[in-house]
Amino acid sequence: MAKKMTLGKGLEALIPTDLDASILGEDQHRIQKILITDIVPNQQQPRRKLDKNELAGLSASIKQHGVLQPIIVVRQIGGKGYRIVAGERRWRAASAAGLSHMPAIVRSLEELEQIELSIIENIQRVDLSPLEQAMAVYKLQHQFSLALEQIAEKLGKAPSTVSNMARLLQLPDNARQALQDGKISEGHARAILALKGRLTKQQELLGCILNNGWTVRQAEQFVVGAKKGASLDQAKGRTASETQLTKDLSKKLKCIVKVRHTAKGGQLIIHFKNEAELEKIARRLSDSGQQIADN
Question: What CA–CA distance (Å, rounded) separates 147 from 153?
Answer without folding.
Answer: 10
